[in-house]
Design goal:
The structure holds two protein chains of two kinds. Chain A is about 85% helix and about 0% strand. By secondary structure, chain A is mostly helical. The two termini of chain A are about 35 Å apart. The relative contact order of chain A is 0.10. Chain B has ten helices and no strands. The chains are: A mainly alpha, B mainly alpha. Chains A and B meet through helix 1, helix 2, helix 5, helix 6 and helix 7 of A and helix 2, helix 3, helix 6, helix 7 and helix 8 of B.
């Protein structure tokens, strides 16, 4: 596991405490308030991810991306990427495995791109911070852009 | 009442989880396993991010942020937004609270969107990992396309969203 973030945070916190106790307490209060504010959404999203990943297991996902080709395959990969929320260190090796099993670079590029830029499941969190319109506009544009990425990668990487 | 309203979404997901248990016990167990796994992942990233944000809020004056990433920050603001987003760890939803603090500190809207884009897709640790898994050509092509894409997308969104709406988003950010 990665403790770097904790170490940096604790170091800065101690530094801050020695410089100004009052300010440090204020910072901690702000942190707690902000965390409490968004906690319900976070927990909801995490449970939803658990349910979705259990039902749509990697075998089902890889079957769909691996067996289809062309723009329909790209579209399906893009949609799967937009809906699922898989950490990069799981997604990249999975994508590499799919490539070895005959999936196209375009499909993989669409999948990776929407996976990172489009978050259908996290929409409730995004809307809470930025409002409905922004969240929908940002995700839609990112979705379309992912197909541009897929197309260019399809030309460049053969 | 306030509690129920706030936790409505979470309760809905828990009801779905219960139904999944009834329909297919094994899938239910699997869903709980994955949930616990994500929960652990969240514990490793989210609390320090919030503490860092609290410190940033208290220690970095608004003028400094406005100077480097505000309305008149120009290319310097764009580069800084890309850099901060790319250096970050964790999933995209971790970027939203950071964006809220940036808005409070007067960071320009288009730079906020660039920052979100960089956080989602040009992250340095992830790039190294992508290179190892999918090859240098794939990772590098995607990185270059994405850097242009992020800036273009930011330009489009800033134009599509009306001024009043952007103001509302900034006012909303004060709540966080």
């Amino acid at each position: 596991m990665n403790f770097t973030l904790y170490i940096i945070t604790i170091f800065l916190l101690i530094l801050s405490y020695f410089k100004d106790k009052k300010k440090t307490m204020k910072a901690l209060k702000k942190a707690l308030k902000a965390f409490e504010n968004i906690l319900p959404q976070f927990l909801g999203v995490i449970v939803l991810v658990g349910i979705l990943l259990a039902v749509f297991n990697p075998e089902i996902i890889s079957g769909i991306i691996g067996n289809r080709s062309g723009w329909l395959g790209v579209l399906i990969s893009g949609i799967i990427g937009a809906i699922t929320l898989i950490p990069g260190f799981v997604a990249f090796p999975t994508a590499a495995m799919l490539l070895e099993n005959g999936a196209g670079y375009m499909q993989i590029a669409a999948f990776i791109s929407t996976l990172m830029m489009v978050g259908v499941i996290t929409l409730p969190i995004e809307m809470k911070y930025f409002g409905k319109r922004f969240a929908i506009v940002r995700n839609s544009i990112a979705f379309v852009f992912s197909f541009v990425v897929a197309y260019i990668i399809g030309i460049l990487v053969v | 009442m306030r509690f129920i309203k706030r936790y409505k979404f979470l309760m809905t997901t828990l009801i779905i989880l219960t139904i999944l248990f009834v329909v297919n016990y094994e899938l239910g167990i699997k869903a709980v396993d994955i949930t616990v796994y994500s929960l652990k992942e969240m514990v490793f990233v989210i609390p320090p991010v919030f503490v860092l944000l609290g410190l940033l809020d208290v220690w970095v004056p608004k003028e400094t942020m406005v100077k480097y990433m505000g309305e008149r920050s120009g290319i310097k603001g764009i580069l800084l937004s890309i850099f901060i987003g790319s250096a970050a760890a964790g999933p995209l939803y971790g970027a939203f609270p950071v964006a809220a603090v940036f808005m409070k500190k007067g960071v320009k809207f288009s730079n906020i969107i660039i920052f979100l884009g960089a956080w989602s897709t040009t992250k340095i640790p992830m790039f190294l990992f992508e290179m190892a898994s999918l090859g240098t050509k794939f990772a590098l092509s995607r990185l270059i396309i994405d850097i242009f894409g992020i800036i273009i997308i930011s330009g489009i969104i800033s134009r599509i969203i009306p001024k009043e709406e952007i103001e509302k988003i900034y006012i909303n950010a004060e709540k966080f």
